[in-house]
Amino acid sequence: QVQLVESGGGSVQAGGSLRLSCAVSGDGRYCMAWFRQAPGKEREGVARIYTGSGSTYYADSVKGRFTISRDNAKKTLYLQMNSLKREDTAMYYCAASSTSGYCPLVVNRYNTWGQGTQVTVSE
Q1: How far is 111 from 26, CA to CA, in rounded Å?
Q2: What confidence tens digit (pLDDT) does each residue in 35-90 have?
Q3: Which of these, 27, 18, 26, 24, lies nearest to 80 by C-alpha position?
Q4: What is the pLDDT of residue 18?
Q5: Pairing verdict, β 90-97 and 117-122
């Protein structure tokens, strides 16, 4: 049974940076991702990584600003967020899938979720 615990959220001014972490317990993670959900909006995918190859994918809205990475030895997933914008304000969730195959950034592809960490960007 995989469990995920996010940390690193907070408040930052536009243009600033934050690094989110997701501590993983258990095994069986084929791919992992970060999603976010702003009030009144649907949960959207931000970035995805295959835990084996390290191959990554980013939503257009964060490409060039965010970097997803993993440290398999530490069992930790990261999201480095630079040049933050007000529209990045959301609850950020770490997600994992134990099923092999293609891992798109869609909610129902992932079967384990963390509790979320809030990111607030002010002007």
Answers
A1: 14
A2: 999 999 999 999 999 998 999 999 999 999 999 999 989 999 999 999 999 999 99
A3: 18
A4: 98
A5: antiparallel
| Closest listed residue to residue 95, CA positions, set 40, 51, 39, 42 | 51
Residue-level pLDDT at 35: 98
Identify the CA nearest to 24 among candidates 114, 115, 120: 114
Statement: residue 9 has pLDDT above 90: yes
Report the pLDDT value the prediction gives residue 26, as an integer from 0 to 100.
Answer: 87
According to DSSP H, which parts of 15-67 are helical? none
Q: Rounded to an integer, what distance in angstroms lies between the CA atom of residue 11 and that of residue 29?
A: 30
Could you tell me which residues are beta bridge partners of residue 97?
31
Cβ atoms of residues 45 and 58 within 8 Å: no
The count of other CB atoms within 10 Å of the CB of residue 93 is 23
For 33, other C-beta atoms within 10 Å of its C-beta total 27
3-state secondary structure of 51: coil
